[in-house]
Amino acid sequence: MKKKVFGFWAIGITLACLLVVLIACQKSQSNYPLRIAVSFTAAQENKPLDGRVLVMISNNNQREPRFQINDGPDTQLIFGVDVEGLAPGEEAIIDSQTFGYPCHSLSEIPPGEYWVQALLHRYETFHRADGHVVKLPMDRGEGQHWNRAPGNLYSQPRRVFIDPRQDKTIHLVMDQKIPPIPPPQDTKYIKHIRIQSKLLTEFWGRPMYLGACVLLPEGFDEHPEARYPLVINHGHFPYTFSGFRETPPDPNLPPVYSQRFGLEGYNRIVQEYAYKFYQDWTSPDFPRVVLVKIQHANPYYDDSYAVNSANLGPYGDAITYELIPYIEKKFRCLGAGWARFLYGGSTGGWEALAVQIFYPDEYNGCWAACPDPIDFRAYTIVNIYEDKNAYFLESPWKRTPRPGHRNYLGEISATLEEMNHRELVLGTHSRSGDQWDIWQAVFSPVGEDGYPQPIWDKLTGEINHEVAAYWRENYDLRYILQRDWPKIGPKLVGKIHIYVGDMDNYYLNNAVYLMEEFLESTRNPYYAGEIDYGDRAEHCWNGDHTRPNAISRLRYHQMFIPRIVERLLKTAPPGADLTSWRY
To answer: How many CA atoms lie within 13 A of 377 on its CB side?
Structure first.
C-alpha cells in the first residue's frame, strides 16, 4: 500500500513539474519582446483600411521577400494579422504570439541579418443577398495573387538584424502601392469580352463581371456565313489567351531553368510551343472552332470552379446561361448543347467534368486532365468521411504526417499541414486566395459568420464530418454520378474522358481510380468514355503517351480539339450545320 501511495505521489509531483515547465516555456515565448510594427502613409491611402497585414522575412535578397513564399523547401518566412479600420500612421503589430509559416513564431527565428518586407492585402466589404456581411479581397485583374494585387500597399525590403530576445521594435512603413494592370489588347485572332452578370451582381450586392478570352478561327472574317462549334478550355485566370504566339520565340530571351522539369531554357520551350500552336491553328487542316478561356476570378480565388456555390454564388448558371449565350451570339457560334465542349487540366479538369455532370444537356463532352479531387474518399490522400484528422495518420503510438506534394519519384517537398498553415497565415476565413481555401469556399455551406464552414480545423487538421456530408451530397462528383446515374447516365454516354499521371504531384490519381471503379461498373447505360493513366507522369498529364509531361502540357489544344470535332460529327442531330465551319 505504501508503494502505491508513493507511486501516485510521485506521479503527481512529476505532472506538476511538467505543468510548471510548460507554463514557463509558454510565458518565456509570450514574453519575447521583439515586435514588428507596420503602418502606411496618408500619401498612399488617406482613409482607414481593412485587410491582412503580412510580414515576410528572408535570408537572401535574390527577390523581394513577398515573392519568396511557397510550399517548397526554399520558402522564406511569413507572419500575418487581420486589421479592420487601420488608419494612416496607425501600427499593426507582429510579435511572438503572431502565427507564422513555416516558423510558427518570431521566437523561433535564429538571431541574424534578414531582409524584411510588409504588405497589406486589402479587403472590401460585401453585403450579400443571403444577409451576410463579409470582408474579402476582391480580385483586381491579377487573378487573386496577394503579392501582385493592384492597390495593395507594401514596403521596400529592408535589411535588419533580428534577435527575438531583444527588446526592440522594427518599424516598417508601407509607402508603395501596386499599380493597376492595363487591359489586354485585342488582335486579329484574340478578342477580350466582359459582361456584368445579373445573377452574380444580385448575390454579391455589387456589380460583378464575367469575362472571356476568345480565340477566333482562321478565316473568321472571310466566312461571315459560318457558324462555329464552341470549345471551352477551363482553367486558372487568364489575363489573355496564353499559349498562342504569332511570332517565333524571342532569340534574346534569357534562358530560365525549370526546377520542376529539370530543363534549361524551359521559358523558350514554352514560346516555341505557343508559336507552334499558332501555326497549327492557322493551318488548312486544323478544325475551325471558337475557343474560349473564361475569366471568373472572384473574392475567394482566381476562378469559381464554374459551379453554383453557397459561398461564391451562382457561377455555374451565370457562365452557362449568361456568358456562353453572349459569346455564341457575338462570335457566330452554333449555339446548342450538341456543339459545345469542355476540356481542361487540374482545376480546369475538375471544372470540365463538373460542368458536364451538372449541365448534361448543355454540353456534348468533356476531356478532364489531372482533375482536382473528384471523389472525396480521396481528397488528395484524405478520406474526409472516415479519417479524423487531415494532417496526420493517427495510431495508438505515433502520428504520421500526411504528405501534400511529391515528385515522380515520390520524394516529398511539403506536407498537408505545412500547405494549410501557409494558407492560414495568408488569410483567415478561407481568404488566402489559394488552393485548399477555394475548395473549402466552393464546397462548404455558409457558416454563421458568413464565411465558409471549415472542412477541418486549419490549425490542427481535425475534420468536421457534418461539413463532409454536405460536400458529398453537393460536390463529390463520383458520389453524385453513382447516386443519380439512372437519371443523368443516359445523357452522359460517351461524354466523359479523364486522364491523370499515376505519380500526380498532389495525389489526384487516387480519386480517379475510385471514379474509374464506378464508371466501369455502369450498366443501362454503360458510360462508354475513357480513363487513362500516364506511367510516372506528374501533374498536368493529358493522355499523351508519346511526349514527356513538360511538352504534352503545352499541347492541350492540339490534343483535344480534333477529338472534340470527331465526336461532334458523330453525334450531331439530323439537319445540323456540319458544313459552314468546315472550310
So the answer is: 9
Q: Are strands 169-174 and 35-40 parallel, antiparallel or unpaired?
A: parallel
Length of the chain: 583
Domain contains 64: yes
Tens place of pLDDT per residue across the chain (583 aa): 333 333 433 434 333 433 433 333 343 445 689 999 999 999 999 999 999 999 999 999 999 999 999 999 999 999 999 999 999 999 999 999 999 999 999 999 999 999 999 999 999 999 999 999 999 999 999 999 999 999 999 999 999 999 999 999 999 999 999 999 999 999 999 999 999 999 999 999 999 999 999 999 999 999 999 999 999 999 999 999 999 999 999 999 999 999 889 999 999 999 999 999 999 999 999 999 999 999 999 999 999 999 999 999 999 999 999 999 999 999 999 999 999 999 999 999 999 999 999 999 999 999 999 999 999 999 999 999 999 999 999 999 999 999 999 999 999 999 999 999 999 999 999 999 999 999 999 999 999 999 999 999 999 999 999 999 999 999 999 999 999 999 999 999 999 999 999 999 999 999 999 999 999 999 999 999 999 999 999 999 999 999 999 999 999 999 999 999 999 999 999 999 999 999 9
Q: Is the Cα dihedral 447, 452, 454, 458 positive or negative? A: negative
184, part of any domain: no
Look at the alpha carbons of 38, 41, 47, 51 in this order and tell me if their dihedral is positive or negative: negative
Whether residue 216 is found in the same domain as residue 273:
yes
Beta pairing class for 530-534 and 496-501: parallel
CA dihedral for 275, 281, 284, 286, sign (positive or negative): positive
Q: Does 447 lie in the same domain as 339? A: no
CA 124 to CA 134: how far, in whole Å?
8
Are 298 and 420 found together in one domain?
no
Count other C-beta atoms under 10 Å from residue 91's C-beta.
Answer: 18
The angle at the Cα of 347, spanning 562 to 130, to the nearest 5 degrees, equals: 125
Which residues have a Cβ under 8 Å from the Cβ of 500 and sit 6 or more positions away? 369, 370, 371, 508, 509, 512, 533, 534, 537, 541
Residue that finishes a domain, picked among 443, 473, 503 = 473
In a shared domain, residues 198 and 261:
yes
Tell me which amino acid residue 489 is.
Answer: G
Q: What are the residue ranges of helices labelled H in 246-396?
A: 266-281, 315-318, 324-330, 347-358
Q: Please answer whether residues 211 and 294 qualify as being in contact, where contact means their C-beta atoms are separated by less than 8 angstroms.
A: yes
- Domain with 110, as residue range(s), is 33-177
What is the C-alpha to C-alpha distance for residues 377 and 424, in angstroms, rounded to an integer?
A: 24
The answer to whether position 14 is within a domain reads no
136 and 56: one domain? yes
Assess whether 385 and 448 both reside in one domain.
Answer: yes
Q: What are phi and psi of 367, to 5 degrees?
A: -125, 100
Do 142 and 248 fall within a single domain? no
Degrees to nearest 5, angle at CA 571 with 568 and 577: 60
In a domain, 513, yes or no: no
CA gap 118, 97 in Å, rounded: 17
Where among 155, 177, 199 does a domain terminate? 177
Q: Is the dihedral of CA 303, 307, 313, 315 positive or negative?
A: positive
Helices (H), 413-452: 416-426, 435-443
> How many domains in the chain?
3
